[in-house]
Amino acid sequence: MFDNPIYNYPIEALLSHFGSREEGKGMFYSPLREETSASLHVNRKDNVWFDHGAGIGGTNVQLVMAVRKCSTEEAEQFIKSLDPALAAKTEVISKARSLPTTEIIKVKPIWSYYLKRYLEERKIPINIADRYCKEVIIRNHVKGKDYTTLGFENNSGGYNLSAPYGFKSCSKGGITTIDTEGKRTVMPSTRAVSIFEGSFDFLSWQVLQNAKTPTTDVLVLNSVNNLDKATGYLRLHDSYICFLDNDQAGRKCLEDIRKMFPNKEVKDMSALYSEHKDLNEMLQNCRGYDINEISIKNSL
Hints:
alpha+beta
């Protein structure tokens, strides 16, 4: 019934240990006091009890707590002491739960047709994706399955992962900062920094810029919740070019940047894709990759 096997230890076995005997079907003499007729009922199916004389009840752990007047942890240890096999089983489960749900088992250049098709649907050419992304194989220990994902590395040494059908995850959260040589570094190379919420917006900008490397420093938040982590890097710049989403979270992030740096230039570029949620959605609605359709270069 319970996830923790300790809670499946039979209550009647505990009552027997405490010297209580059964009188009638499921009725036991309460170990909580002296009594002349049995008043404690045990529901063997659900492994719970109720003491009609005291008006209390609960699980086997709560019974031990009531009898021995101890904590939950002490009650669980007491039950484990009565059944060595149960103690071993809980130890195995405890170790299994300490393992991460998912882990990265392989990182390599983008090879899978599955991911290449995913990039094609998002209108990101493979030659651009190859510069900044990897094919990342993750293992889900709960499901016992491996998954192929697109990984965008962040400054924490982890990867922000994505795949078709809306899958998003990260092996270790953090921001990504890139210089004008296309290298991931925390050292600035320009006085301006272009800011994006996610990797696909940054990659879309690269497509629309029609440039091999970024024309300014780049900050990819990977989540608007990471803005605080970017404060130190942002302070190294004098101007902020914001390609944030056209939603409440994106607008709040923009205002937060303005509040952080009231005396510096903050450009809101969302008007360029005002009819779309973000830069990548606009790119997906473009005909091909024609930079002349949307003059981002001339807007900076």
